[in-house]
Amino acid sequence: MPLVRAHTTLMLPEAIVIESLLDAHGIRFALAGKDIISQCPQFKILFGGISFLVDEADLEMARALIADAEHVPGYLSIESAGFERWPVRNAILAFVMLIIGTPFPFWYRGRGSQSGLRP
Questions:
Q1: Strands 29-32 and 50-55: what pairing?
Q2: Which numeric CATH code is attached to 3-101?
Q3: pLDDT digits (tens, 9 = 90+) for 33-91
Q4: How many of the other CB atoms lie within 10 Å of CB of 80?
Q5: What SS3 state is found at 109?
Q6: DSSP assignment, residue 26?
Q7: pTM of the prediction?
Q8: What is the C-alpha to C-alpha distance for residues 54 and 109, in angstroms, rounded to an integer?
Q9: Per the UniProt record, which residue ranges are transmembrane (predicted)?
Q10: Is 48 left (phi over 0), alpha (psi -120 to 50) or beta?
Q11: What are the backbone dihedrals phi and psi of residue 55, each rounded to the nearest 5 degrees, phi first?
């Protein structure tokens, strides 16, 4: 059977909870994007988050289980609400973090040793 998208999230902890929920109910699924987001969280917006792919026959049950889990008090954090509210701003911030974060260690090259002595 072909796989269809049941849910997409930007939050890795949410993905882990949904993963265990679907596994506990015996629903077979595949994850798209979890590896890249767990290794490079700044790319989660650029890659579209973590998607849960399930069989068409299990789609309604999977969506019902995920919908029940989303109504837990305190489920939405300030961070997740901010990601949904300002997606363009967050994409720009991810790009700026990538640009500024990459050359940072090279700014300290050639400034001498810690004791002040030059080689």
A1: antiparallel
A2: 3.30.70.1530
A3: 888 877 887 777 778 888 999 999 999 999 998 887 665 555 555 555 666 777 787 77
A4: 15
A5: coil
A6: T
A7: 0.56
A8: 50
A9: 91-108
A10: left
A11: -65, 150
